[in-house]
Amino acid sequence: MSEDVKAYKEKKKKIADIIAERLDRRFPSFKSQIEAVDVVTPISVEHFTASYRGNLPWPAPKEIAREISKKGVGKTLPGLEGFHMVGQWAGAIYSTQACLIGRDFVQQLCKGNRKEFVTVTSN
Q1: Are 73 and 93 in contact (CB under 8 A)?
Q2: What is the pLDDT of residues 24-56, one digit of tens each?
Q3: Which of 49, 94, 96, 115 has the smallest set of CB atoms within 10 Å of its CB?
């Protein structure tokens, strides 16, 4: 394995560990419930989707694009309880606002569980 690839994988692991640690502080026992981790980078997106900077390399058929633009795509999978997909590909077509999609998803979860949705900002 080249040094670049090794450093890339180590950096991805470090990022995953930092995020898991912070979430564990906020939600005790979070880390013990993690089953799989993948840190997606721009290189990952290019590799797995053939897109560059979030742009699709091919146009979606107009009928499909129109429908997805209105409704988005499903964020759950039948038979996979507790799974929720959040990210660029789970939003409206061409959407690169994964953070906003994640926020909206959490807001929907709160509504479904009759919990108050509260946001906190820090400087």
Answers
A1: no
A2: 999 999 999 999 888 888 777 777 776 666 566
A3: 115
